[in-house]
Amino acid sequence: MSDPRAFLSFDYDHDQTSKVLFAGQCHQDSPTPFTVADWSSKSSLPQATWEAEIRKKVGNTNMLIVLVGEFMATASGVAKEIGFANEKNVPLFGVYVNGATSSSTLPKGLSRSTVIPWTWQGVSDMVDTCMKLGKNA
């Protein structure tokens, strides 16, 4: 597939700026090897509606990219999105943002070995890897 689709998972309360910057650098004319669409909910939804919508959106992508910030442990929605990816056999990886490091707490379901610093070469390499895993294999 020449244009992989990625779902961005992030801590809404703490990492919105990083999400905007990450997605902005992934626009159509950038050198990044994938497309990011902003499928986040634009309004507050009842939990069951949110879960159904996000489960479907995650299932329609090639990978889930988790933007791992310093306060990720409190982001319950991120853990659910990771669970949806696992249900749909969608490969995932994480990218450290906002001062998070290898000692930062990770959300449930995200392996430390799949979280990388934010460099475009590293992200590109992980995208290539994800395109050979799970539902993409």
Give an overview in words.
With 137 residues, the protein is of the alpha/beta class. It has one domain: Rossmann fold (3-Layer(aba) Sandwich), CATH 3.40.50.11200. 33% of the residues lie in helices and 15% in strands. Strands 2-1-3-4-5 form a five-stranded parallel beta sheet. Helix 2 crosses helix 3. The protein is globular and about 40 Å long. The protein starts with a strand and ends in a 7-residue tail after the last helix.
Keywords for this structure?
137 residues, alpha/beta, Rossmann fold, 5-stranded parallel β-sheet, 4 helices, 33% helix
The CATH topology corresponds to: Rossmann fold
SS elements, strand count? 5
- CA distance, first residue to last residue: 11 Å
Give the number of helices: 4
- Overall structural domain count: 1
CATH architecture: 3-Layer(aba) Sandwich
What's the short story on this structure?
The protein has helices at 16-24, 47-59, 76-87, 120-130, and strands at residues 5-10, 35-36, 63-68, 92-96, 115-116. The protein is an alpha/beta fold and 137 residues long.
